Amino acid sequence: MMSNTDRKEQYKCGDHSVQSVRQKIKDTLDESRKESRQALVTSKRFRVSTLPGDVTDLSLVQVRQTASDLKKKSGTNRLSLLKQLTAAFTLHVDNLTEFLGVDGALRSLVSIFTGIDTELQTEAALCLTNLAAGRYSVLCIIRE
């Protein structure tokens, strides 16, 4: 005759321990939180559809060149450079890292943001917003 514990063991639904079930639930919740956070960040980013039609997607080399050109204080095309960077930051997260790889690019962007030209300040604010909406690793670079 079968004992009561043997009978319970016979009809268990697999070998799921309480800890493994808890871990699966925790992993599922963590993944759900990450997805909802990413959706929130993406929804708050500046949309490319609101940019003028002349702004196109930039490659990583072009982002680096645009960041270098932005550092130059002379030139009247700083507004178009900022618009290009805003679009690039919105489209690809790798562009953020590439921009921050240029020495003095972030400092130049902040100096434009604190400058006196309100149109340039607005575009610089959009660039900084898109930088802040990037990956956590990008935020760590900015913080340093």
Could you explain how this protein is built, in words?
InterPro entries: ARM-type_fold. The protein has 144 residues and is an all-alpha fold. It has a domain at 47-143. Helices cover 69% and strands 0% of the residues. It contains 8 helices and no strands. It has helices at residues 4-10, 18-44, 60-71, 78-91, 94-100, 105-113, 118-132, 136-143. Helix 3 (60-71) runs antiparallel to helix 4 and helix 4 packs parallel to helix 7 (118-132). It starts with a helix and ends with a helix. 21% of the residues are buried.
Provide a brief overview of the structure.
This protein has 144 residues and is mainly α.
Number of helices: 8
Q: For the report, how would you describe the main beta sheet?
A: none
Return the structural class: mainly alpha
Report, as a whole number of angstroms, the end-to-end distance. Answer: 71 Å
Overall outline: rod-shaped
- In terms of quaternary structure, the protein is single chain
Using the CA coordinates, give the radius of gyration.
25 Å
Percent helix range: 55-70%
Low-confidence stretches: 48-55
What is the succession of H and E elements? HHHHHHHH
Give a count of the beta strands, DSSP E runs of length 2 or more: 0
How much of the residues is beta strand, in percent? under 5%
Mean pLDDT rating: 77
InterPro entries: ARM-type_fold (IPR016024)
